[in-house]
Amino acid sequence: MSKIKPSKGAPYAKIMGVGGYRPTRVVPNEVILETIDSSDEWIRSRSGIATRHWASDQETVAAMSIEASGKAIADAGLTADKIGAVIVSTVSHFKQTPAVATEIADKLGTRKAAAFDISAGCAGFGYALTLAKGMVVEGSSEYVLVIGVERLSDLTDLEDRATAFLFGDGAGAVVVGPSDEPHIGPTVWGSEGDKSETIKQTVAWTEYDSAVHKFPAITQEGQAVFRWAVFEMAKVAQQALDAAGISADDLDVFIPHQANMRIIDSMVKTLKLPEHVTVARDIETTGNTSAASIPLAMERLLATGEAKSGDTALVIGFGAGLVYAASVVTLP
Amino acid sequence: MAATQEEIVAGLAEIVNEIAGIPVEDVQLDKSFTDDLDVDSLSMVEVVVAAEERFDVKIPDDDVKNLKTVGDAASYILKHQD
Lengths: 332, 82
Ligand SMILES: CC(C)(COP(=O)(O)OP(=O)(O)OC[C@H]1O[C@@H](n2cnc3c(N)ncnc32)[C@H](O)[C@@H]1OP(=O)(O)O)[C@@H](O)C(=O)NCCC(=O)NCCS
What we know:
Radius of gyration of chain A: 19 Å
Number of strands of chain A: 14
Oligomer: heterodimer
Largest sheet of chain A: 5 strands, mixed
CATH superfamily of the largest domain in chain A: Thiolase/Chalcone synthase
Bound molecules: coenzyme A
Order of helices and strands of chain B: HHHHH
Largest sheet of chain B: none
Structural class of chain B: mainly alpha
CATH class of chain B: Mainly Alpha
Number of helices of chain A: 9
Number of strands of chain B: 0
Helix content of chain A: 25-40%
Radius of gyration of chain B: 11 Å
Protein backbone atom coordinates (compact mmCIF):
# COMPACT_ATOMS: atom_id res chain seq x y z
CA MET A 1 0.00 0.00 0.00
CA SER A 2 1.36 3.44 -0.96
CA LYS A 3 1.44 6.21 1.55
CA ILE A 4 -0.90 9.09 0.67
CA LYS A 5 0.16 12.58 1.60
CA PRO A 6 -2.60 14.32 3.55
CA SER A 7 -3.82 17.84 2.77
CA LYS A 8 -2.79 20.59 5.13
CA GLY A 9 -5.52 22.83 6.43
CA ALA A 10 -5.83 25.66 8.90
CA PRO A 11 -6.17 24.98 12.64
CA TYR A 12 -9.58 26.71 12.68
CA ALA A 13 -11.88 28.75 10.50
CA LYS A 14 -13.65 32.10 10.75
CA ILE A 15 -16.10 34.28 8.87
CA MET A 16 -13.94 37.01 7.33
CA GLY A 17 -16.49 39.16 5.53
CA VAL A 18 -20.19 39.47 4.76
CA GLY A 19 -22.19 41.07 1.96
CA GLY A 20 -25.82 41.34 0.94
CA TYR A 21 -27.97 42.27 -2.01
CA ARG A 22 -31.61 43.35 -1.73
CA PRO A 23 -33.60 43.78 -4.95
CA THR A 24 -34.49 47.37 -5.88
CA ARG A 25 -38.25 46.90 -5.79
CA VAL A 26 -39.74 47.30 -2.31
CA VAL A 27 -43.17 45.70 -1.97
CA PRO A 28 -45.40 46.99 0.83
CA ASN A 29 -48.31 45.01 2.29
CA GLU A 30 -50.76 47.07 0.20
CA VAL A 31 -49.54 45.24 -2.90
CA ILE A 32 -50.14 41.88 -1.22
CA LEU A 33 -53.67 42.98 -0.38
CA GLU A 34 -54.47 43.24 -4.10
CA THR A 35 -54.54 39.44 -4.33
CA ILE A 36 -55.59 38.20 -0.87
CA ASP A 37 -58.36 39.09 1.55
CA SER A 38 -56.33 40.38 4.52
CA SER A 39 -55.17 43.61 6.11
CA ASP A 40 -51.91 45.41 6.78
CA GLU A 41 -52.66 45.09 10.49
CA TRP A 42 -53.18 41.30 10.30
CA ILE A 43 -50.00 40.76 8.30
CA ARG A 44 -47.95 42.89 10.67
CA SER A 45 -49.36 41.32 13.81
CA ARG A 46 -49.00 37.71 12.59
CA SER A 47 -45.63 38.01 10.88
CA GLY A 48 -44.06 41.38 11.69
CA ILE A 49 -43.57 41.98 7.97
CA ALA A 50 -44.17 45.49 6.61
CA THR A 51 -42.27 45.33 3.32
CA ARG A 52 -40.23 42.85 1.32
CA HIS A 53 -38.09 43.04 -1.81
CA TRP A 54 -39.05 41.31 -5.05
CA ALA A 55 -36.49 40.75 -7.76
CA SER A 56 -36.88 42.01 -11.33
CA ASP A 57 -36.10 39.87 -14.38
CA GLN A 58 -32.58 41.27 -14.35
CA GLU A 59 -32.05 40.47 -10.67
CA THR A 60 -31.44 36.79 -11.30
CA VAL A 61 -30.14 34.30 -8.74
CA ALA A 62 -26.68 34.65 -10.30
CA ALA A 63 -26.80 38.45 -10.56
CA MET A 64 -27.89 38.95 -6.95
CA SER A 65 -25.26 36.44 -5.78
CA ILE A 66 -22.50 38.22 -7.65
CA GLU A 67 -23.44 41.57 -6.07
CA ALA A 68 -23.55 40.12 -2.54
CA SER A 69 -20.35 38.13 -3.06
CA GLY A 70 -18.40 41.12 -4.37
CA LYS A 71 -19.22 42.95 -1.15
CA ALA A 72 -18.37 39.95 1.05
CA ILE A 73 -15.00 39.42 -0.67
CA ALA A 74 -14.12 43.12 -0.34
CA ASP A 75 -15.26 43.08 3.30
CA ALA A 76 -12.89 40.16 3.89
CA GLY A 77 -10.04 42.24 2.42
CA LEU A 78 -9.58 39.77 -0.43
CA THR A 79 -9.91 39.67 -4.20
CA ALA A 80 -11.90 37.05 -6.10
CA ASP A 81 -8.79 35.22 -7.36
CA LYS A 82 -8.17 34.07 -3.76
CA ILE A 83 -11.50 32.21 -3.51
CA GLY A 84 -10.95 28.46 -3.78
CA ALA A 85 -14.53 27.26 -3.59
CA VAL A 86 -18.03 28.64 -4.04
CA ILE A 87 -21.02 27.05 -2.32
CA VAL A 88 -24.50 28.29 -3.21
CA SER A 89 -27.56 27.36 -1.18
CA THR A 90 -30.84 27.98 -2.97
CA VAL A 91 -34.20 26.38 -3.68
CA SER A 92 -35.27 28.93 -6.27
CA HIS A 93 -32.80 28.59 -9.14
CA PHE A 94 -34.91 26.92 -11.77
CA LYS A 95 -32.18 25.49 -13.93
CA GLN A 96 -30.83 22.45 -12.12
CA THR A 97 -27.83 21.86 -14.28
CA PRO A 98 -25.18 23.19 -14.37
CA ALA A 99 -24.97 24.44 -10.79
CA VAL A 100 -25.41 28.22 -10.67
CA ALA A 101 -22.31 28.34 -8.43
CA THR A 102 -20.12 27.72 -11.50
CA GLU A 103 -21.43 30.80 -13.34
CA ILE A 104 -21.01 32.89 -10.19
CA ALA A 105 -17.44 31.64 -9.65
CA ASP A 106 -16.58 32.51 -13.25
CA LYS A 107 -18.21 35.94 -13.36
CA LEU A 108 -16.65 36.93 -10.04
CA GLY A 109 -13.22 36.23 -11.52
CA THR A 110 -12.12 33.31 -9.37
CA ARG A 111 -9.40 31.07 -10.73
CA LYS A 112 -11.42 27.99 -11.56
CA ALA A 113 -12.73 27.76 -8.00
CA ALA A 114 -14.58 24.57 -7.09
CA ALA A 115 -18.27 25.42 -7.28
CA PHE A 116 -21.49 23.63 -6.39
CA ASP A 117 -25.07 24.18 -5.20
CA ILE A 118 -26.78 22.67 -2.17
CA SER A 119 -30.44 22.43 -1.21
CA ALA A 120 -31.24 22.73 2.48
CA GLY A 121 -34.09 25.25 2.50
CA CYS A 122 -33.99 27.84 5.24
CA ALA A 123 -31.15 25.97 6.98
CA GLY A 124 -29.03 26.27 3.82
CA PHE A 125 -26.73 28.99 5.12
CA GLY A 126 -25.81 26.93 8.19
CA TYR A 127 -25.30 23.81 6.11
CA ALA A 128 -23.04 25.64 3.65
CA LEU A 129 -21.15 27.35 6.48
CA THR A 130 -20.48 23.94 8.03
CA LEU A 131 -19.13 22.60 4.74
CA ALA A 132 -16.98 25.71 4.27
CA LYS A 133 -15.50 25.42 7.74
CA GLY A 134 -14.66 21.78 7.07
CA MET A 135 -13.04 22.61 3.75
CA VAL A 136 -10.83 25.33 5.27
CA VAL A 137 -9.76 23.14 8.18
CA GLU A 138 -9.25 20.09 5.98
CA GLY A 139 -7.25 22.16 3.54
CA SER A 140 -8.99 21.71 0.21
CA SER A 141 -9.59 25.48 0.02
CA GLU A 142 -8.04 28.38 1.87
CA TYR A 143 -10.98 30.73 1.28
CA VAL A 144 -14.53 29.55 0.67
CA LEU A 145 -17.38 31.76 -0.51
CA VAL A 146 -20.77 30.82 0.96
CA ILE A 147 -23.87 32.25 -0.69
CA GLY A 148 -27.52 32.00 0.35
CA VAL A 149 -29.76 33.30 -2.41
CA GLU A 150 -33.48 33.09 -3.19
CA ARG A 151 -36.13 34.43 -5.51
CA LEU A 152 -38.99 33.09 -3.41
CA SER A 153 -41.39 35.48 -5.17
CA ASP A 154 -41.19 33.00 -8.06
CA LEU A 155 -42.42 30.24 -5.74
CA THR A 156 -45.21 32.24 -4.05
CA ASP A 157 -48.90 31.76 -4.74
CA LEU A 158 -50.09 35.34 -4.44
CA GLU A 159 -53.65 34.12 -3.94
CA ASP A 160 -52.77 31.94 -0.94
CA ARG A 161 -53.69 33.85 2.24
CA ALA A 162 -51.35 31.76 4.35
CA THR A 163 -48.14 32.49 2.42
CA ALA A 164 -48.60 35.41 -0.03
CA PHE A 165 -47.21 37.95 2.44
CA LEU A 166 -44.33 35.90 3.83
CA PHE A 167 -41.65 35.58 1.20
CA GLY A 168 -39.04 37.87 -0.30
CA ASP A 169 -35.98 37.81 -2.54
CA GLY A 170 -32.32 38.56 -1.97
CA ALA A 171 -28.78 37.24 -1.60
CA GLY A 172 -26.34 37.12 1.30
CA ALA A 173 -22.75 35.92 1.22
CA VAL A 174 -19.84 35.34 3.58
CA VAL A 175 -16.20 34.42 3.06
CA VAL A 176 -14.86 31.68 5.34
CA GLY A 177 -11.09 31.50 5.80
CA PRO A 178 -8.29 30.26 8.06
CA SER A 179 -7.93 31.27 11.69
CA ASP A 180 -5.56 30.56 14.59
CA GLU A 181 -8.46 30.46 17.00
CA PRO A 182 -11.90 28.88 16.72
CA HIS A 183 -14.41 31.46 15.48
CA ILE A 184 -17.07 29.08 14.18
CA GLY A 185 -18.36 26.75 16.88
CA PRO A 186 -19.60 23.18 16.49
CA THR A 187 -22.68 22.86 14.28
CA VAL A 188 -25.79 21.26 15.75
CA TRP A 189 -27.74 20.12 12.73
CA GLY A 190 -30.15 17.50 11.54
CA SER A 191 -33.25 16.61 9.58
CA GLU A 192 -36.74 15.39 10.43
CA GLY A 193 -37.94 13.87 7.19
CA ASP A 194 -41.03 12.50 8.89
CA LYS A 195 -42.26 16.12 8.84
CA SER A 196 -41.50 16.68 5.15
CA GLU A 197 -45.15 17.45 4.41
CA THR A 198 -45.27 20.52 6.66
CA ILE A 199 -43.38 22.78 4.21
CA LYS A 200 -43.27 21.75 0.58
CA GLN A 201 -43.64 22.62 -3.07
CA THR A 202 -47.29 22.29 -4.15
CA VAL A 203 -46.62 20.29 -7.35
CA ALA A 204 -43.51 18.43 -8.52
CA TRP A 205 -42.03 19.81 -11.75
CA THR A 206 -42.60 16.47 -13.46
CA GLU A 207 -46.31 16.58 -12.60
CA TYR A 208 -46.84 20.24 -13.32
CA ASP A 209 -49.37 20.86 -16.09
CA SER A 210 -50.17 24.53 -16.68
CA ALA A 211 -53.65 23.57 -17.90
CA VAL A 212 -54.43 21.94 -14.55
CA HIS A 213 -52.17 23.46 -11.91
CA LYS A 214 -51.18 26.87 -10.70
CA PHE A 215 -47.42 27.42 -11.00
CA PRO A 216 -45.63 25.45 -8.25
CA ALA A 217 -45.36 27.35 -4.98
CA ILE A 218 -44.33 26.83 -1.37
CA THR A 219 -47.13 25.72 0.91
CA GLN A 220 -47.00 24.97 4.62
CA GLU A 221 -48.90 23.93 7.72
CA GLY A 222 -48.35 27.24 9.47
CA GLN A 223 -49.13 26.35 13.05
CA ALA A 224 -47.31 23.03 13.02
CA VAL A 225 -44.25 24.80 11.64
CA PHE A 226 -44.62 27.62 14.18
CA ARG A 227 -44.71 25.14 17.05
CA TRP A 228 -41.71 23.22 15.78
CA ALA A 229 -39.75 26.37 15.01
CA VAL A 230 -40.27 27.97 18.40
CA PHE A 231 -40.00 25.06 20.76
CA GLU A 232 -37.88 22.42 19.03
CA MET A 233 -35.50 25.00 17.58
CA ALA A 234 -35.03 26.71 20.92
CA LYS A 235 -33.64 23.36 22.14
CA VAL A 236 -31.30 23.17 19.15
CA ALA A 237 -30.16 26.74 19.74
CA GLN A 238 -29.39 25.85 23.36
CA GLN A 239 -27.43 22.78 22.23
CA ALA A 240 -25.34 24.98 19.91
CA LEU A 241 -24.55 27.30 22.82
CA ASP A 242 -23.61 24.35 25.00
CA ALA A 243 -21.47 22.79 22.26
CA ALA A 244 -19.56 26.06 21.92
CA GLY A 245 -19.17 26.37 25.69
CA ILE A 246 -21.02 29.70 25.62
CA SER A 247 -23.78 30.77 27.99
CA ALA A 248 -26.59 33.09 26.95
CA ASP A 249 -24.91 35.76 29.09
CA ASP A 250 -21.77 35.58 26.93
CA LEU A 251 -23.77 36.15 23.77
CA ASP A 252 -23.85 39.54 22.01
CA VAL A 253 -26.10 38.81 19.07
CA PHE A 254 -28.85 36.34 18.09
CA ILE A 255 -29.47 35.85 14.38
CA PRO A 256 -32.24 33.31 13.82
CA HIS A 257 -33.56 32.56 10.35
CA GLN A 258 -35.99 35.37 9.55
CA ALA A 259 -39.19 33.38 9.06
CA ASN A 260 -41.69 35.29 11.16
CA MET A 261 -41.28 37.97 13.87
CA ARG A 262 -43.56 35.96 16.13
CA ILE A 263 -41.23 32.96 15.89
CA ILE A 264 -38.27 35.21 16.69
CA ASP A 265 -40.04 36.78 19.70
CA SER A 266 -41.13 33.42 21.09
CA MET A 267 -37.67 31.91 20.63
CA VAL A 268 -36.08 34.81 22.49
CA LYS A 269 -38.53 34.21 25.34
CA THR A 270 -38.12 30.44 25.35
CA LEU A 271 -34.32 30.74 25.31
CA LYS A 272 -34.48 33.37 28.09
CA LEU A 273 -31.96 35.54 26.26
CA PRO A 274 -30.71 38.42 28.42
CA GLU A 275 -31.69 42.01 27.54
CA HIS A 276 -28.22 42.91 26.28
CA VAL A 277 -28.39 40.41 23.40
CA THR A 278 -29.07 42.16 20.07
CA VAL A 279 -31.72 40.25 18.13
CA ALA A 280 -31.89 40.35 14.32
CA ARG A 281 -35.33 41.52 13.20
CA ASP A 282 -34.60 42.03 9.52
CA ILE A 283 -37.85 40.19 8.70
CA GLU A 284 -39.79 43.47 9.01
CA THR A 285 -38.39 44.91 5.80
CA THR A 286 -37.10 41.79 4.08
CA GLY A 287 -39.69 39.05 4.59
CA ASN A 288 -38.59 35.42 4.64
CA THR A 289 -35.72 34.97 2.17
CA SER A 290 -34.90 31.37 3.19
CA ALA A 291 -31.18 30.61 2.74
CA ALA A 292 -30.38 34.31 2.31
CA SER A 293 -31.97 35.52 5.52
CA ILE A 294 -29.14 34.96 8.02
CA PRO A 295 -26.30 36.58 6.04
CA LEU A 296 -28.63 39.44 5.02
CA ALA A 297 -29.58 40.03 8.65
CA MET A 298 -25.92 39.76 9.71
CA GLU A 299 -24.87 42.32 7.13
CA ARG A 300 -27.58 44.76 8.19
CA LEU A 301 -26.77 44.50 11.93
CA LEU A 302 -23.13 45.27 11.18
CA ALA A 303 -23.99 48.08 8.74
CA THR A 304 -26.31 49.83 11.21
CA GLY A 305 -23.87 49.42 14.09
CA GLU A 306 -26.33 47.34 16.13
CA ALA A 307 -23.66 44.63 16.10
CA LYS A 308 -19.93 44.99 15.68
CA SER A 309 -17.01 42.99 14.39
CA GLY A 310 -15.82 40.52 17.02
CA ASP A 311 -19.25 40.08 18.58
CA THR A 312 -20.29 36.55 19.51
CA ALA A 313 -23.42 35.53 17.64
CA LEU A 314 -25.72 32.53 17.73
CA VAL A 315 -27.04 31.70 14.26
CA ILE A 316 -29.81 29.18 13.62
CA GLY A 317 -31.55 28.23 10.40
CA PHE A 318 -34.59 25.94 10.10
CA GLY A 319 -37.11 25.10 7.44
CA ALA A 320 -38.38 22.76 4.76
CA GLY A 321 -37.24 19.18 5.24
CA LEU A 322 -37.61 19.74 8.02
CA VAL A 323 -33.94 20.64 8.47
CA TYR A 324 -31.99 22.78 10.88
CA ALA A 325 -28.47 23.99 11.66
CA ALA A 326 -27.18 26.16 14.50
CA SER A 327 -23.78 27.37 15.63
CA VAL A 328 -22.02 30.12 17.52
CA VAL A 329 -19.81 32.37 15.38
CA THR A 330 -17.69 35.47 15.77
CA LEU A 331 -18.98 38.27 13.54
CA PRO A 332 -16.58 39.51 10.86
CA MET B 1 -51.26 13.51 40.82
CA ALA B 2 -53.87 14.69 38.31
CA ALA B 3 -54.96 18.30 38.57
CA THR B 4 -58.58 19.25 39.35
CA GLN B 5 -60.58 21.45 37.00
CA GLU B 6 -60.07 24.36 39.38
CA GLU B 7 -56.32 23.89 39.37
CA ILE B 8 -56.31 23.60 35.60
CA VAL B 9 -58.20 26.86 35.15
CA ALA B 10 -55.87 28.60 37.62
CA GLY B 11 -52.89 27.22 35.69
CA LEU B 12 -54.32 28.30 32.34
CA ALA B 13 -54.95 31.77 33.79
CA GLU B 14 -51.28 32.06 34.73
CA ILE B 15 -50.22 30.88 31.30
CA VAL B 16 -52.53 33.30 29.47
CA ASN B 17 -51.36 36.09 31.74
CA GLU B 18 -47.74 35.29 30.94
CA ILE B 19 -48.30 35.06 27.17
CA ALA B 20 -50.96 37.69 26.47
CA GLY B 21 -50.76 39.89 29.57
CA ILE B 22 -54.42 39.37 30.45
CA PRO B 23 -55.21 39.67 34.22
CA VAL B 24 -55.62 36.20 35.74
CA GLU B 25 -59.08 37.00 37.10
CA ASP B 26 -60.36 37.60 33.54
CA VAL B 27 -59.56 34.03 32.53
CA GLN B 28 -62.90 32.29 33.14
CA LEU B 29 -64.39 29.05 31.83
CA ASP B 30 -66.71 30.75 29.34
CA LYS B 31 -64.06 33.08 27.89
CA SER B 32 -63.00 32.59 24.28
CA PHE B 33 -59.22 32.70 23.82
CA THR B 34 -59.33 34.69 20.59
CA ASP B 35 -62.41 36.86 21.11
CA ASP B 36 -62.11 37.69 24.82
CA LEU B 37 -58.53 37.11 25.86
CA ASP B 38 -56.41 38.57 23.04
CA VAL B 39 -54.83 35.19 22.37
CA ASP B 40 -54.51 34.90 18.58
CA SER B 41 -53.89 31.63 16.74
CA LEU B 42 -50.12 31.83 17.17
CA SER B 43 -50.26 32.79 20.86
CA MET B 44 -52.63 29.85 21.22
CA VAL B 45 -49.82 27.57 20.08
CA GLU B 46 -47.70 29.00 22.89
CA VAL B 47 -50.52 28.54 25.39
CA VAL B 48 -50.93 24.93 24.29
CA VAL B 49 -47.23 24.13 24.61
CA ALA B 50 -47.09 25.73 28.06
CA ALA B 51 -50.19 23.78 29.11
CA GLU B 52 -48.69 20.54 27.80
CA GLU B 53 -45.63 21.04 29.96
CA ARG B 54 -47.52 22.12 33.02
CA PHE B 55 -50.19 19.41 32.99
CA ASP B 56 -48.21 16.63 31.33
CA VAL B 57 -50.65 16.15 28.42
CA LYS B 58 -50.21 15.99 24.65
CA ILE B 59 -52.45 18.31 22.64
CA PRO B 60 -52.01 17.56 18.91
CA ASP B 61 -52.37 20.43 16.39
CA ASP B 62 -55.58 18.90 15.05
CA ASP B 63 -57.23 19.15 18.46
CA VAL B 64 -56.08 22.71 19.12
CA LYS B 65 -58.66 24.24 16.80
CA ASN B 66 -61.48 22.72 18.89
CA LEU B 67 -60.29 24.48 22.02
CA LYS B 68 -62.23 27.73 21.63
CA THR B 69 -62.82 28.60 25.27
CA VAL B 70 -60.94 28.22 28.53
CA GLY B 71 -63.61 25.65 29.47
CA ASP B 72 -62.86 23.62 26.30
CA ALA B 73 -59.17 23.57 27.18
CA ALA B 74 -59.77 22.70 30.83
CA SER B 75 -62.07 19.77 29.93
CA TYR B 76 -59.59 18.54 27.34
CA ILE B 77 -56.74 18.58 29.84
CA LEU B 78 -58.88 17.00 32.57
CA LYS B 79 -59.77 14.14 30.23
CA HIS B 80 -56.31 13.57 28.77
CA GLN B 81 -53.97 14.00 31.73
CA ASP B 82 -52.77 10.81 33.32
C1 LIG C 1 -48.41 31.78 8.25
C2 LIG C 1 -48.89 32.19 9.61
C3 LIG C 1 -48.56 33.64 9.88
C4 LIG C 1 -50.42 32.02 9.63
O1 LIG C 1 -50.92 32.27 10.90
P1 LIG C 1 -51.97 31.27 11.54
O2 LIG C 1 -52.36 31.84 12.80
O3 LIG C 1 -51.39 29.90 11.52
O4 LIG C 1 -53.16 31.34 10.49
P2 LIG C 1 -54.43 30.40 10.32
O5 LIG C 1 -54.41 29.91 8.94
O6 LIG C 1 -54.54 29.43 11.43
O7 LIG C 1 -55.58 31.44 10.47
C5 LIG C 1 -55.96 32.05 11.69
C6 LIG C 1 -57.08 33.00 11.43
O8 LIG C 1 -56.62 34.09 10.59
C7 LIG C 1 -57.33 34.10 9.35
N1 LIG C 1 -56.36 34.36 8.29
C8 LIG C 1 -55.52 33.48 7.70
N2 LIG C 1 -54.76 34.11 6.80
C9 LIG C 1 -55.12 35.39 6.84
C10 LIG C 1 -54.67 36.54 6.17
N3 LIG C 1 -53.70 36.50 5.26
N4 LIG C 1 -55.24 37.72 6.47
C11 LIG C 1 -56.23 37.82 7.39
N5 LIG C 1 -56.69 36.76 8.07
C12 LIG C 1 -56.13 35.56 7.79
C13 LIG C 1 -57.94 32.76 9.22
O9 LIG C 1 -59.11 32.82 8.43
C14 LIG C 1 -58.23 32.39 10.65
O10 LIG C 1 -59.39 33.06 11.08
P3 LIG C 1 -60.49 32.30 11.97
O11 LIG C 1 -59.78 31.89 13.23
O12 LIG C 1 -61.51 33.36 12.19
O13 LIG C 1 -60.94 31.15 11.15
C15 LIG C 1 -48.23 31.34 10.70
O14 LIG C 1 -48.80 30.06 10.75
C16 LIG C 1 -46.75 31.20 10.55
O15 LIG C 1 -46.05 32.15 10.29
N6 LIG C 1 -46.21 30.00 10.74
C17 LIG C 1 -44.82 29.76 10.60
C18 LIG C 1 -44.54 29.60 9.17
C19 LIG C 1 -43.14 29.87 8.78
O16 LIG C 1 -42.53 30.81 9.21
N7 LIG C 1 -42.62 29.03 7.90
C20 LIG C 1 -41.35 29.14 7.34
C21 LIG C 1 -40.38 28.43 8.19
S1 LIG C 1 -38.90 28.32 7.30
